Amino acid sequence: MVAIRTDELTKYYGDVRGVEALSFSVEEGEVFGFLGPNGAGKTTAIRTLLGFQSPTRGTATVLGADVTDAAALREARARVGYLPSEPAFDDRVTGRRLLAYHGALRGDVRSDELLEMFEPPLDRPVGDYSRGNRQMLAIVLAFMHDPDLLIMDEPTSGLDPLKQETFHEFVRTERERGTTFFFSSHVLSEVRKVCDRVGIIRDGRLVEVASVDSLLDRSGKHVRLTLGDSVDDGAFDLEGVHDVTVGGRGGADAADREDGVTTVSFTYTGAYEPLLRRVLEHDLRDLTIEEAPLEDVFMRFYDEGQATADDAGRATEGAPPRDGVDTGREADDA
Amino acid sequence: MLETARYEAEKRLLGSLALAGGLAAFAAMMTLLAPGVLGEVDVAALAEQLPPAFVEAFDLELMGSIEGFLAIELYEFLWLVGLGAYVAYSAGGAVAGDVESGRIDTVLAAPISRERLVTETSLALLLPILAANVAVFATVFATTRFVGDPIAAVDLLAVHALSIPYFCCCAAFGTLASVSAPGRVVAEGVAAGGVVGAFLLKTVSAAADLPWLGAVAPMRYYDPTAILTASEYDLAGAGILLGATLVLLIASAAWFREVDLS
Fold it and tell me: Out of A110-114, A117-121, A251-255, which region has the weakest mean confidence (pLDDT)?
């Protein structure tokens, strides 16, 4: 069963593109992360799914209800929880009154339990709440009717690290119970922790839908070498090596090397053996191989359009197009 | 059932009490001043010295009795235009404010239709309307008896009862502005300005002898001066106002159902 399905979903605000031709589906019981930089169209997509605005073209269903069918979507919303990115409430009303109001609108089956995990000061007017307390109240309101599907826009924004962890743990528990999650985020550690699959959106278009594991596999390893000898350009021109950075620039010139060592770092997506063979041809002083941070994967998607041929000096030839981008991170590390 | 109307009315409770208190205080002051003014000023002589158009526009010839005095000093302006504009202004800010601030998002994520939300939000405006009516009715009733110049209770009751359709119409107009204007401030301005403008239109159309021009003004169908000074109750007018309220609310709900909230 599919919880959310979009087909060529497009939303324009006049001439301004919100999202264009989004096609994806979120399976029941899945945690689907919707990722993209600010302004990529994440919130536009979410607001269209909730029926706050109608699509310009294309279709979408939420729990089987067409988002353009107001009556069907209203019924479906009884089983949907929504957590906005910047929850807004009436400032003069207390949290308790809001809880009662929303309970009357959608039903309240578990606010007591939720309030043990997330503890907004219910007896104070919401106007006095801190950002984190406001977010906790919004979380309780989103989950109080025990929905089957949660649509969340940057759910942990404003929460302190402890509450973020509580929230992630809560999401994992809910997932075990079969709850479906669709949420936007740009906090990649969060995505790593809780998501099964991610959709990556850039400039309103979906550029990738993949499982988190496959994205990490694809991102390869970060390799960092400390060598006692000099390195020619192309010394590590191996299949699967990209974004090579040589410490001190122009590693072939011994005078440029600091402390007599050359540092080389790159991302590697091939097998270990050929890499190690090549490495051992040099005077190896130190070697670290670690999982590339998820950030790098996303940076490649985000920066794709900005790649230029000028990167040739830093990036090796022959890498796949989206990998041929220097995020700047390597240069900082070197 | 009516959770939203209840919630919105609760939010308006303090404001409504303050409004009712303020209007009641003004009504009390005017009533207490009335015997002194009526005793010392020869209104008929004064009216002769003023331009006839002016006298007619402000119904000055009726000012000689306490009914006429209160009709002009309280009901024709502060009540009719002031409270009418306030009610429209409040309605104008209601939905538009919730959309602009994003407060409406968490509500609309619940299984409630937009039509229902608009209707119940407007319904909550009955609270300030009723509170003002009760407070001013009681005050005028009591103070006119206190100064020894009682107004007929039936007329006073009618001036308040028949004001309810009028204020509902103002609220419905404000609601239409609220759902259709591009933002809260514009909605509030259009709503309050619309009521004041309608009043001017009615006055000008009467002066220019173009009665059809003032037909869209809700004040055409509720005339507190005629009720108080001549015991003329425009029940048909009240029906027209209720009909207009219904039409405006249906239009608001239909518009709000279709509009993008962003």
Answer: A251-255
Give pLDDT, residue A334. 30
Q: What is the pLDDT of residues B81-140, one digit of tens each?
A: 999 999 999 999 999 999 999 999 999 999 999 999 999 999 999 999 999 999 999 999
| Chain A partners within 8 Å of B101 (Cβ) | 88
Does residue B53 form part of some domain?
no
Q: How far is B8 from chain A (nearest CA, A)?
A: 10
The closest of B183, B169, B176, B198 to B252, measured between CA atoms, is: B176
A149 at B interface, C-beta within 8 A = no
Last residue of a domain, one of A194, A216, A238: A216
The band of A259, judged by pLDDT with boundaries at 50, 70 and 90, is low
Tell me, what's the pLDDT at B254? 97
At residue A289's C-alpha, the angle toward residues A285 and A291, to 5°, is 160
Spell out the residues 6+ positions from residue B189 whose beta carbon is closer than 8 angstroms to its own: B92
Contact, A259 vs A228, CB < 8 A?
Answer: no
Shared domain for A51 and A168, answered yes or no, is: yes
Residue A6 is part of which domain span?
A: 2-216
A238 and A200 together in one domain: no
A254 and A189 share one domain: no
Report how far residue A139's alpha carbon sits from residue A82's, in angstroms, rounded to the nearest whole number.
8
CATH number at residue A188: 3.40.50.300
A72 touches chain B (CB under 8 A): no
Name which of B13, B105, B184, B260 to mutate to probe chain A: the one with the most chain A Cβ atoms within 10 A of its Cβ: B105
Residues of B in contact with A80 (CB under 8 A): 109
Residue A175 CB neighbour total at 10 angstroms? 18
State whether residue A55 sits within 8 Å of chain B by CB: no
ipTM comes to 0.89
Task: Name the domain boundary from A216, A231, A264.
Answer: A216
Q: Which of residues 191-210 of A touch B (CB under 8 A)?
A: none
Q: Band of the pLDDT at B211, cuts 50, 70, 90?
A: confident
Interchain pair B106, A81: CB under 8 A: no
Q: By C-alpha distance, which of B133, B141, B168, B160 is closest to B224?
A: B160
Disruptive mutation site among A80, A90, A93, A136 for chain B (greatest number of B CBs within 10 Å)? A90
How far B58 CA lies from chain A's nearest CA (Å)? 42
Q: By residue range, what is the domain housing residue B148?
A: 3-33+77-258
Q: What is the pLDDT of residues A137-147, one digit of tens each?
A: 999 999 999 99
